[in-house]
Amino acid sequence: MKCQYCDFKETQVIDTRETENLEATRRRRECLKCHKRFTTYERIEEADIVVVKKDGKRERFERQKLINGILKACEKRPISIDKIEKLADEVESDLRKRDSVEVDSKIIGKITVKKLRKLDKVAYIRFASVYMEFEDLDRFEEELDKLQKK
Hints:
By secondary structure, the chain is of the alpha+beta class.
């Protein structure tokens, strides 16, 4: 494995663990040259998930796009990258359990928003405001009221 810091081609695995859902192996590595540490994940290569967009176009599911969206929602919140990775793992796992490899983008949003609601209320509202496309302040306040009642 190539070091992400100095590009040296030899690293040493110093710790190996399975993720909670057993869908990936987390490896903590140390570069044999610069001695910096970094984490890698080993996953089974599975059939591609195809996302059906609002306009009917289809594209391959990109986990990093999901993580980027979650990161934006969680910006300046006390949420670790590990929790964000775990949430993305859960969403992807839910998508893979579906009968079809084609998934509507709205389904991805719905699954993500549900999981974010449990993780952090502010991140949930941020993500929901984009996903649910609040058209005005009344719709936004309606969602806040629902959140406060629960």
